[in-house]
Design goal:
Length: 128
């Protein structure tokens, strides 16, 4: 099997050259973690915890504000739905009252119609 040019290139780097690269990377990390004039090196975990706690408080408060806004909107929507239900109930009561009144009117008209028909029959029988 043939090795690619990258594989053969990485194997050809001498051991001392690899150590020099690693030492250079370590020196860069020390410079990034430790500001000029400071001799203490802070572990990376402590820095990450500080950053996460600061942003965590902001995200918690943002979450609470969002939750309160959602709850207020939900309350407004529920109130509107209850208002619509009450209005619909009132309209249905009005319609049922009208139907009941019209039903009575229809019954009255049927009675009047039957009286008229009886009277017409009586008049027709008297003329015959």
């Amino acid at each position: 099997m043939k090795r690619s040019s990258q594989d053969s290139g990485s194997c050809s780097i001498p051991e001392d050259r690899k150590l020099y690269v690693v030492d250079s990377i370590n020196d860069l990390n020390k410079l990034n973690l430790c500001p000029a004039g400071s001799q203490q090196l802070f572990p990376l975990e402590e820095k990450l915890q500080d950053v996460s706690t600061d942003s965590g408080n902001g995200s918690h408060s943002l979450f609470l504000v969002g939750l309160i806004i959602v709850l207020i909107i939900s309350l407004a929507l529920v109130s509107f739905v209850i208002f619509l239900i009450v209005q619909t109930e009132n309209k249905m009561e009005d319609v049922s009252r009208r139907l009941a009144a019209e039903g009575k009117d229809i019954d009255d008209l049927k009675k009047i119609n039957s009286i008229i028909v009886k009277r017409l029959n009586q008049l027709d029988s008297e003329q015959s």
